[in-house]
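LAB NOTEBOOK - FOLDING QUEUE
OPERATOR: T.R.
BATCH SIZE: 2
PURPOSE: Compare the predicted structure-token outputs for two unrelated chains run back to back under identical settings.
PRIORITY: normal
REVIEWER: second-year student, initials M.K.

ITEM 1
FIELD SEQUENCE / FIELD STRUCTURE:
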Amino acid sequence: MESKPQKMPKVAKVKNKAPAEIQITAEQLLREAKERDLEILPPPPKQKISDPDELADYQHRKRRAFEDNLRKNRSVISNWLKYAQWEESQKEVQRARSIYERALDVDHRNITLWLKYTEMEMRNRQVNHARNLWDRAVTILPRANQFWYKYSYMEEMVGNIAGARQVFDRWMEWEPDEQAWLTYIKFELRYKEINRARTIYERFVYVHPDVRNWTKFAKFEEQHGFISGARKVFERSVEFFGEETMDEKLYIAFAKFEENQREHDRARVIYKYALDHIPKDRAQELYKAYTIHEKKYGDRTGIEDVIVSKRKFQYEEEVKANPTNYDAWFDYLRLVESEGNLDSIRETYERAIANVPPTKEKQFWRRYIYLWINYALFEELEAEDEERTRQVYRACLELLPHKHFTFSKIWLLYAQFEIRNKNLTMARKMLGMALGMCPKDKLYRGYIDLEIQLREFDRCRILYEKFLEFGPENCVTWMRFAELETLLGDTDRARAIYELAVNQPRLDMPELLWKAYIDFEVSLGETEKARELYERLLERTLHVKVWMSYAQFELASADESNVELARRVYERANLSLRGANEKEERVLLLEAWREFETQHGDESSLNNVIKKMPRRVKKRQRVQADDGTEEGWEEFFDYIFPEDEATKPNLKLLEMAKAWKKQQQTNDEDKEGEDDDDDSNSSSES
């Protein structure tokens, strides 16, 4: 027989796969089950016991159930507690006591078990049993504070004060936490045992040596009228903590105690002692309290001392946060100097100068170097210690990295200090050393000024020669050297110096030098030499200011034809600038020339200059970027001079030709428009 193929069961097809309109969540199912109380079993029916046999049967069944639970798991203390509480409810105290003892054999370190056991004994007024239990509990578990609290409380409630005190004494032998000691003290105070409480405090502050506890001890003495005792407690606490572990809270409490006793001088001494010995970062509250005290009871000097101390603390914080904040050091030093304590000022200066800038860049040393300068000035002017001042200057000069940079003011100040102390040889030696190690313009000038004041002109000449060898391009040096020779009456040397100067290949400010040279010749009345200098200068430059100065010079000269000479200079200048195509400078020249002719010329000469004046026109030019692309147009003003137009006669003809060509183009366009209109009219007629 052929076996039929096994048919697969048909899978039910879901026609509508869209979600239902109302969605039911698991939370909703649980909430409905809770509301309908589906899982809550009905309570068992109440059973009324009517005779002793039925009671005995009930107790037997319950005890067997409890014992079965205990056999299943002896370590579950809740089963023991339920069993014992049930026996107690049946007035079977002895049985309950037995159950508790069995439970203690299982877990004698369970605090709840001991508490329930003793509470049962106390409820049933079994005081001796409870006392024995407490005694056993505190012996086995002496660190469980609950036992000690309840034990002492029970003894106090039954009126056994001596027994309670004995319990506290046993407890204190274990050195419990602070609250236990305070509880013992309150217990003694309830029975007016002040001396006993003081004895407990004596032990307490050594077991728990905290500032808060010493303060409580002192307040206890103060509250009970023992003022001297409170002061002794504070003094003992200060000795106990010493200077290494000083706390501002203790001194604030001590000072406020003295303030309450109107001992303001004592309070002030306490505040000052604390401020001198406690680190500044841990004395903020102390500063506030001291300030308030001085504002209440101090005089003006005391208040100022407080403010100074507070500002000192602020500066200390600033320099501690950033030791290279030299502005903070300056303010701090100014404050310390106002107090006048030399040792403190020196110590602060030494701390300040110890913060050397970390890099060898001059910009970071500019503020720092003034610390050394102020230190040296303080030693010289305030402390009047010559040797220390010299040491400060030398230490500063040794510290400076002269190969990278130097500070001329330090060398000069040191030299001036030595001169003030009549030590000229040392001053010259130091300045010579400075010029050898790190020559600078300021050093040369300072050294030269010093020798001029000493009237050592030969030395000045030597120094100027060295100075010019060091910087031959410095025009000011040449000018001052020549001025020195002029003052000394040696005009030939001065003129030679000027000649050397103007022949230098490179100068930083040649215009000043030439002006000084010309003024020098003018002051000597050498007009021809001054004129020669102007001509030599014009060979080098054609600047408009040189021409204008030349014209003013000619005008101011004593010659009778000075106006004509000045006019010639203006004419030469105009021709020169016209050839150089310097339009703006030429305008300046013509304006000056016009003003000159207005004051010193006649009408024809003035009209001649006015004809040369340009007219200003606005023009446009293309603007090109750096990469050559065009960025648009910009407007600018240009000057058109009549002289330039006269030299270009074809310019006007070209403009007229352009205008004619433009007119012709417009005429041709109009004619083409008329022809187009005629053609359109003829086509419409056809």
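ITEM 2
FIELD SEQUENCE / FIELD STRUCTURE:
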Amino acid sequence: RRFLSVVQLNPFPAELVKTLLNEPSSVKVDEVVRYEAGYVVCAVIAGLYLLVVPIAGLCFCCCRCRRRCGGRVKTEHKALACERGTLMAFLLLTTLVLLTGVVCAFVTNQHMHEQVDPSVEAVPEILLSLRGLVSDVPQELQAVAQQFSLPQKRVLEDLDGVGMSIGSTIHTRLRSTVYEVLASVSNLGQALQVSVDHLQALNSTLVELRKGQQDLEPAVREHRERLLALLQEPGCQGCTEAQSRAGALELGADFQKVSPVDDVLHRLRGVPEANFSSMVQEENSTFNALPILAALQTASVVKELKKVVAQRPEGLTTLAEEFPGWEAASRWSRALEEVEERSRPYLKEVQRYEKYRWILGCVLCSAVLLVVVCNLLGLNLGIWGLSAREDPSHSEAKGEAGARFLLIGAGFSFLFAAPLILLVFATFLVGGNVQTLVCQSWESKELYKFADTPGNLPPSMNLSQLLGLKKNISILLAYQQCREGAALWSVLQLNDSYDLEEHLNISQYTAKLQQELQNLKVDMKNLDLLSPAAHRDLEALQSSGIEKIHYSSFLVQIQKPVVNTNMEKLAQELEELARTQGSSVLGQQLQEEAQGLRNLYQERVLPQQSLVVSLEAQEQGSESSLSPFAQVETSGVLDKVTYLKGELPTWATSILRNESECFLTREVGYFSQYVAWVREEVTQRIATCQPLSAALDNGRVVLCDMMADPWNAFWFCLAWCTFFLIPSIIFAVKTSKYFHPIWKRLSSTSSEETQLFHIPRVTSLKL
């Protein structure tokens, strides 16, 4: 790359490329030559090389035929060893440089060959990715528009349960009020039933007690009078205390003084007419069935709502069709597909010619390697021959062989110099221009800047016009935005070319939905809360005067004993008196009276006492079954029932409106969320142009990194070897002279020189 930067000092030829793209016929040759001045100089050098080296080779061959070139040293002198060593060192160094170069040439040639197949295969993939980008944009827009079915589906699912939901909400909101009223009605009905039962039982017991009192009073009075007569007789002994007890033998409780309940029972006759428990249970069932009732009543409206929801807004229908570049996308997709199909045969030809280039490169590299081998063999054999020359019995064959290998290497160098320089220059011209004209400007973004400059590209290559945009876009800025993952909306600046909000306007759609929701109605006329019979029962209770019953009069009489005297104790006392009497007749009479008292107690007093106990329980039950404020409570329940029957429809309608508005807000929220998602997808995520920047980067990698770099590395290494063949030829020819036998040796009388150069006898010298 540094060498190419020296060869090509000119900047990117924007004017020349502009002329070439817009008016190819007006391109001037002198401008091309001026820009390619460095390559022209290299072409001159290559031409001189191609001319001089083969001519020199021919001359060398002619000289060799006449034994004038590549001869032998005629006279041995003092500097012979130094000259020979220097030439051998330079030849060895040159050979090592050649060896390094040819190894690098082999490696880069093979690397270039290995990179061709992946590079060729990458081209259809890059075109396919571009075609996918172009063809995916309409498909993604259609997919986004089709996603409207998701909020539609959600709204349709909500509509399936909207009636039940509204009914449940009405039920929940009114539940506490309705349950409270129904509970009051139920409690009042139960209290009414219990009170009527207790009053009836109380009245029945009171009647029995009064009847028993009427029967018991004469019997008690008769027993008292007889006992007093017996105990007052003069012969009765110790009868004073018993006489006082017998005098107290009279009725205690007088149930004639108890407040009557006949009037209340008369007013409550036939009450309760209604079965309050069954009625409340039925009203509860009716109220609890309100969600189902609401679902049935709103079914027809829900059906119409579903028809409205099933429609699709017109703007979403044309979202993809009216998107900028919709028609251009199909044209570009077809064009890229056609380019892909047409490129395949050419790519196969590239692979085939690359195979020929690889074979030629291998052959020429092998030729250079052959020169290196000849040089190394010549040096080794020559050095071996020199080391054996001191032996009187040595043979000069090794030195001769070494010299011949060196000359053979020089001959190969002359022979392959022409094809080498031709291959080097051809590959250099192509690879160098690709690197300097395309790759460097591509990497430095000069190509994008050139494309962004107005007038540089012909109208047929104007990207904005091809996409149908209203304003020009910067290719460099678009490329940078694409690398960052931006969407086509921001890259192509589609705000001015496409009114997205118009397509996302669903106000008319939601207005129809709102209009249909206003038709929702829930009728609660089936909820009576109180049946007519129950209403009459409560009105009868209200006017019965049950709260005026004086239960205190019951308590006064109940707390009194049936009989003031303990009859059993009196009977026992009479029996004891009967045993202590001196008169058997009086004792017998007292005994009979005691037994009579016991019988009266068992037959009359005990049943009366049992009735009193029952009366007490019934009085307590009757008094506790209804509060003293029963009339007020009954009036309150009746007023509340009347009020609720008038207000429940109004409350239900208000709740229905609120729920309808909440439902509409929620459902419109689904559509608004979808619209926001579409807006974000179209403007930020959908149709990301990152594949475009990736395709451009991949194209640069394929062309520059995978193809141009190894290509340039190959010709550079091969040129290295080619130009080092010249010093290799020179040093090989020069060095070969010293490996031939010397014609004359230097004689010296100096003992030192004699020691340094041993001169054998003449008879042993081989010329």
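REVIEWER COMMENT (ITEM 2): The two ends are 55 Å apart (CA to CA).
FOLLOW-UP: none requested
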